[in-house]
Amino acid sequence: MELFFGIIYFAAGFVYNGLTVLLTPIGYGPMANDLTMGIWCMAGPLAGFLLRTPGVAFLGEFLGAAVEMLLGDQWGAANLISGAVQGIGSELGFTFTLYKMYNWLTLFISSLTLTFVTFGWDWFRNGYNHFSGQMLIIMLIARFISMFVFSGILVKLISNLLQRAHLIKH
C-alpha cells in the first residue's frame, strides 16, 4: 500500500508545482502546499483505519514518504522528516479515540490533528510565520478542507470499497 502511495505522492509534486505556478501571480502561490497537503497525508489515515493497530498510521505515512523520496522527488531526504511529522499528526487522531473508534469522527479528528501538526511544522519549515493573519487563516482553512477531502472522505470511501470487495472485514 505504501508503494502505491509513494507513487501518488510523487505525482502530487507535479500538481503542487502547477498550482504554485497558477497561484503565484495572484499572490497565493504558497497556498499550493495547503491545497495539496491532504493528498500527501492519505497513507497514514488509511493504514490506521484499515489495520486498526497503534503505530500503523505513523508507519504508513513515513513509508509512503520514503518511497516518494526513493522515486526521486524534488524534496529528497527532507521527505523523511515530513513523513514523520505527517505520521505523528495522523497517529494523534487515532490516539484521541484510544484506537477504539473507526468511523467518520475518527477520520475527522485525524484530519484536524494532521492539519494542526503539519501547519505547525510549516510555520517553521516554510516560513508561515511571515504571512499576514488573513493569509494564515485562509491557508489553514484550505489545508483542513484538503485534509478532510483526501484523508477523511476519500479514505472512508476506499475503506468501504475494500469491504464491499471482501478484501477486509471489520
From TrEMBL:
- Give the transmembrane region(s): 6-27, 39-60, 101-124, 136-158
Keywords noted in UniProt: Membrane, Transmembrane, Transmembrane helix
Matching entries from Pfam families are given as:
ABC_cobalt
What name appears for this protein in its UniProt entry?
ABC transporter permease
The organism's taxonomic lineage, starting at the top? Bacteria, Bacillati, Bacillota, Bacilli, Lactobacillales
